[in-house]
Design brief:
By secondary structure, this protein is an alpha/beta fold. Helices cover 29% and strands 16% of the residues.
Length: 279
């Protein structure tokens, strides 16, 4: 059986992406954990390469907050920000085709034992509910009225899950959990301002994967999004955003097909982008 690797945030670092794919076994497959584009030196090149890998059957690409930001810009609902590097995509002759491809990517994936997601899963969600909630957002993104969803996607409220949430408030909470969350309270109230390491969260909050009684605690989870953690292996949770866009590494880690010791899983890394603004 071919190995499958989870890969952290590419963020438009096309040279690093190309170098990493070359280092992986030729018949291996890849799951990219979101933030495919933005802030790196070649978002267009990275996106085209990822699309080609997916269409050839070698890869799948989960959506992150930067990818949703690109969709909102393309739809005329958001302006580019100072560090954005998506203009090349917006000016590309295949812009429409690329945007269509992004809209049809998953928000999370699972084989029943392993979950791959960009940011995380709320403590109230078990594996099945996480995937079902992800599919609700996927359905909205793939619909003809997807711009209505994008127009209502932004905002920090509601900041807590409830099964009684409906329509855009429900989709907003799901999207924020899957693509933006780092810290939450034990009851699942999310906080979106802090991006530092494990010990530096706001008072009363903790990393989402340390929430007591988290219903996905027995699921092996691979995620990205949180570059200040570096390569993280913590109680059935693996963080793979190793700051490629900020001069760190682009990291691929083998996805286990069993309950093997996580420390024995293969890790492959390449150098990231020497960003001019990195500290």
């Amino acid at each position: 059986m071919s190995k499958i690797y989870a890969i952290g945030d590419v963020q438009g670092c096309a040279p690093s992406l190309k170098a990493l794919v070359k280092k992986l076994p030729k018949k291996s497959k890849m799951i990219f954990l979101g933030d495919l584009v933005n802030r790196g030196p070649d978002s267009l090149g990275a996106l085209r390469q990822l699309k080609s890998l997916q269409e050839s059957g070698r890869a799948e690409c989960i959506l992150g907050n930067h990818d949703l930001h690109l969709l909102a810009i393309d739809a005329g609902l958001r302006n580019t920000k100072g560090l954005d590097t998506v203009d090349s995509i917006l000016k590309a002759p295949d812009r429409a085709e690329l945007i269509e491809w992004i809209r049809h990517r998953p928000m999370a994936l699972s084989n029943g034992n392993v979950l791959t997601v960009h940011a995380g899963a709320l403590p109230q969600w078990d594996l099945q509910q996480t995937i079902e909630c992800a599919q609700e957002v996927e359905k909205a993104l793939r619909s003809k009225s997807y711009k209505d969803f994008l127009n209502n996607m932004y905002g920090n409220t509601p900041n807590k899950w409830s099964s009684t949430l409906r329509e855009y408030e429900r989709l907003r909470v799901i999207t924020n959990a899957l693509t933006r969350m780092r810290f939450c309270t034990p009851s699942g109230q999310m906080e979106f301002e802090s991006s530092e390491g494990l010990e530096n969260g706001p008072k009363g909050y903790l990393p989402w994967f340390q929430a007591p009684k988290r219903k996905t605690a027995d699921t092996l989870i691979y995620f990205g999004h949180w570059s200040t953690l570096g390569l993280l292996r913590h109680d059935n949770v693996i963080g793979l955003d190793t700051g490629c866009v900020w001069g760190g590494k682009l990291t691929a880690m083998e996805i286990s097909d069993s309950n093997r010791d996580q420390k024995k899983l293969e890790i492959i890394q390449v150098d990231g982008y020497d960003h001019p603004l990195r500290m």
